[in-house]
Write a structure and sequence with these properties.
The chain is mainly β and 706 residues long. The two termini are 29 Å apart. Helix content is 5%, strand content 57%. The longest helix is centred in the N-terminal third of the chain and has 8 residues. It has one domain: TonB-dependent receptor, beta-barrel domain (Maltoporin, Chain A), CATH 2.40.170.
Length: 706
Amino acid sequence: MKTYQIKTYIAALLSLLQICASAEEPEPFLALALQEVLELEVTSVSKKPQTVSRAAAAVFVITGDDIRRAGAQNIPDALRLAPGLNVAQISANAWAVSARGPNGRFANKLLVMIDGRTVYSPMFSGVAWDVQDTVLADIERIEVIRGPGASLWGANAVNGVINIITKSAVATQGTLIDLSAGTTTQGQVSMRHGGQVEGLGHWRLYGKAFENNALTLANGQGRAMDAWKQQRLGWRADLNPSAQDAVTLQSEIYQSTAGESALLNRYQPPSNLLQGTSQTASGGHVLARWQRDLPNNNSLTLQTYFDHSERDWPAHPFMRLDTLDADLQYRHRAIQGHDIVLGASWRQNQETFHASTTGLPDGIVQYDTFGIDRLKTRMWSVMAQDDISLIPELLTLTLGSKFEKYDNDSFKPLPNARLMWTPDDDQTLWISASKAIRTPSLIDSHGTIRALLPPEFTINGSGLPRPGFVEVLGRTTSEQLWAYELGWKQRLAPGLTLDTTAYYNDYSQLRAGSFNTNNARCLPFYNVQLPAGSPPFAECYLPVPLPNQYLVLPATLTNDFAGHSYGLEAWLDWQASRQHRWQANVTRYAMSLNTAATNVYSWDSPDSSPKWTGSLRWSYTPDARTELDVMARHVGALRDVLFGQSVPSYTTLDMRWAWSSAPGVQWSVTGRNLMTSHHLEFVSEASDVARTLVGPSIILGLRLQY
């Protein structure tokens, strides 16, 4: 796929402004009334439509209008709107996103889906946020569930579930063009066009391309080498072959090139080299979903998809993943007082993982892998859940469980119990207990990998005498969680609602690293095999070191840590008038880890998420042509993210003003991080990634719709 010249496209598309002068007036945005907020439908809580007010879970919905009015440029930008989510920018193209637990670029306890297709990667147990994107105007809503969802969605839905749901083709008819450019982006173009097949259904084609500028290095040495460009193209069709049947077909391809400032360890001075590298990522998917309405208000849904992704990452391993997934769901409502959901699914992952030397100087191998190359894994599962109306319209009990089986493993039960009390239309009280697991990644369970150690690494309080590798042997099993939640949703007054949740998480068998310094050794540089008669570990510390030797420190991944976390989340929504809407939230989080083993180190830092976060948002719509949005966010300090590195607390202010100059034409200007010059948001757990600062930015936008 050839790289787009984005500036050229913007210049050409601006000429369409005159065409849109006669376009129809889009429905002006008015902030949702309180009742509409509470009655928004979600499907991720119970795999069936239900309102927010009657969902026994800590659920928050980011609507498409919310995304537009926030001036979001990508999905992580949009996720900052959700209370209880920790979203931190690492570089121009990397983010750390988590809920109720440790955060990181490879945060591993948050399940993310797009239209029911999981984008959680089993290769490294996490989400590659740089390639999870779409035309943002096509997003209908983002359902954010804080807390486990394993009984419905399976493994890895430990601390939360994010389901990004795009609009149907019938809701995206006509043509839309979104243009933006500013200090952080050279240009972004999103386009879509929708049409219909008479008597059968509707379709849309869409594309998106952008090129973003690099951020600033935290060391004061100018710009980082993390500029980013990406292109994607896709289509969707929603068909109705009969009155009882609905079929959705969709497909997409993408290509991304992202820079990264990597800190490379070398034997030859300088031992720590700041090197610009460029990683490429590409992939695509095809998805088909069929739903049939059955007698007695029952329904049957079958979904299958194939997903391909690969990433050539010079400072890190090369990764390729092919996923084939099939899911069958049956909803039964014929028994009075019961709403039953049954399901079965199958998934196969084909994984390829090996070292990459592309773009690295002097033959440096930043990471080296052994015994992995290619691995095929399969998963089978069945699930059942029943909403039992104990007292109609007053008391509902939800019982359910998923049973998952992986290759060479037994079926794992993931139970869930929820009790919801709704004494009146103005309040809902709920309580829950549930179990979830995080399955080990390819490296966790099967691999051996050597990773360059950073200069900050110490052994028994002293630094390394020379460049070295940690040689990690992965043999872990699943991490486990029992979660307990208590929630209350209350309409305090007309136009004013409060949603609060308290939780306690009990973790066991958490991933840890065990170092064995007694087996440390020296090896000839770049030699991955242990030669006969290699010098002992002590010779690495000789006053005159042997030439071309590097230190190898063995480590084993174990499940020796346990811990618990707890927190309180509160969200307030006030519809003061049809013109004014206020939203506020505050989150308190704490976590501790413990182990009975010796010489064992936690792989996750409990201090990688802030103890306190909060935000205040004001939306003002004085008339049908004008919009003003202001959002202030405060993020508490991170004490110890990696090797003692901390991140100070910060407060940001974002503003967006939009004006419709003609029907179908909207201009906007968005200001980001207006209360700070530059600030650090996160330190990547990939220690060889240079720290970068996020600064203020201005983005100009133009939307054409006809």
